[in-house]
Amino acid sequence: MSRQVVRSSKFRHVFGQPAKADQCYEDVRVSQTTWDSGFCAVNPKFVALICEASGGGAFLVLPLGKTGRVDKNVPTVCGHTAPVLDIAWCPHNDNVIASGSEDCTVMVWEIPDGGLTLPLREPVVTLEGHTKRVGIVTWHPTAQNILLSAGCDNVILVWDVGTGAAVLTLGPDVHPDTIYSVDWSRDGALICTSCRDKRVRIIEPRKGTVVAEKDRPHEGTRPVHAVFVSEGKILTTGFSRMSERQVALWDTKHLEEPLSLQELDTSSGVLLPFFDPDTNIVYLCGKGDSSIRYFEITSEAPFLHYLSMFSSKESQRGMGYMPKRGLEVNKCEIARFYKLHERKCEPIAMTVPRKSDLFQEDLYPPTAGPDPALTAEEWLGGQDAGPLLISLKDGYVPPKSRELRVNRGLDSTRRRAVPEAGGTPSSDAVSRLEEEIRKLQTTVQELQKRLDRLEETVQAK
User: Fold this and answer.
1) What is the pLDDT of residues 50-63, one digit of tens each?
2) Are 137 and 161 in contact (CB under 8 A)?
3) Order of strands, sheet of 271-276, starting from the edge strand that comes earlier in the sequence
4) Is-contact 279 230, C-beta < 8 A?
5) pLDDT in tens, 105-142
6) Helix (H), strand (E) at residue 245
7) 184 and 202 in contact (C-beta within 8 Å)?
8) Cβ atoms within 10 Å, residue 218
């Protein structure tokens, strides 16, 4: 009786290729904060990473092409008064990024095309509502201006950034302990959360109801992370009772037993899962690891298939994941990670080996584009929609920069003057910049006078 020994898959030979030294971002001081987030966020325009900052919290935003050694005086986004714990780019506007911090606030920033020329201290809007540090921020995948934040006060808040108001609240009655991870479903109708009480929950956020939950998906005490994958399934990473790392796949309609459960190794780092819905590949990156494992998810048993592992010598402090529209399709690149070292950010391209450099339609089905499918009001009113798909056949052409508009009278004093639609700063913005420059010049003159007086004193002695 003959049987097929090796499963056929076009992704069996996917390999990771680290960027050359001149394509890395050198001499960046990555944050030392102990928190299980990626510390890095990427989109087709910018790479952002949380960095060390004295007297507050800051993160660095660099244009994607600005590789090489980063100047130690490069301007940062530095409006938080305590360390930043998580950052996330808006999927519908590549110039807008949200940050959550130990100072209990969420801030939304607008980055000008070309990057920062001055330190950015004033956010477009500050979202205040948490009573403890905010460790998770994540944007709705299809509705415009909807942002979710989760804090150590065991509360999840859903914000309408366009009005600056919290529109939905999931209080401590839903999560009685620290929330480890939150992930939106592909159409944004549900969220999947993991909590310190050892439960994974699937929640309808607009109704505030728990649709399904699983107690102890992994027997260990270390943090569990959960993400939605294809066809109504969720994938969890956690630890066994013997502290072995595990990955499991679950059917959300039948959470009694996992569809697949695999033990990986005995490392202590929490595994962060990144799922690609276009290829059905999930990548597992552990903080403190020096490897990236990847698995393919199929609709038939055994459902979760190990593909391979990318290994390097140095361990990773964090990881950023590029959306599909930022990849080089002519090189058959199906994913790109931005690995944070202690003093460096290194791109790693995941590539399918193909001889032809023509567009490979089987590798690049239509993918989520930058346009929202719904307004915030439509989603809050009960509508759901999958992402608006675009083809990458002729390459991705970024849309014209959009201005983030916040209609909140109370917040007008805190808002930064943002560029007009055409990219030219408004007259208010120019006058404010001129005022800042005058103040800086005055400060420099005063410092020079004090220096002259000190020199005279030293010479006199």
Assistant:
1) 998 877 889 999 99
2) no
3) 271-276, 281-286, 291-297, 304-311
4) no
5) 999 999 999 999 999 999 999 999 999 999 999 999 99
6) strand 245-251
7) no
8) 24
Best CA proximity match to 249, nearest among 264, 238, 260 = 260
Q: Which residue has the tokens 């004093």?
A: 413
Please provide residue 35's backbone torsions phi and psi, each rounded to the nearest 5 degrees: -155, 140
The tokens for 129 are 């509502």
pTM here is 0.85
User: Token digits for 302?
Assistant: 């055994």
CA-based end-to-end distance of the chain? 100
Q: What does the alpha-carbon distance between residue 61 and residue 273 come to, in Å, rounded to a whole number?
A: 23
Could you tell me if 203 and 209 are in contact, meaning their C-beta atoms sit under 8 angstroms apart? yes
Of 7, 46, 34, 5, the residue nearest 398 (C-alpha): 46
Amino acid at 233: K
Contacts of 400 (CB under 8 A, 6+ apart): 421
Angle at 308 between CA 306 and CA 311, to 5 degrees: 135
Closest to 224 in 3D by CA, of 160, 167, 272: 272
What would the two tokens of residue 272 be? 């962060």
Are 425 and 403 in contact by the 8 Å Cβ rule? The answer is: no
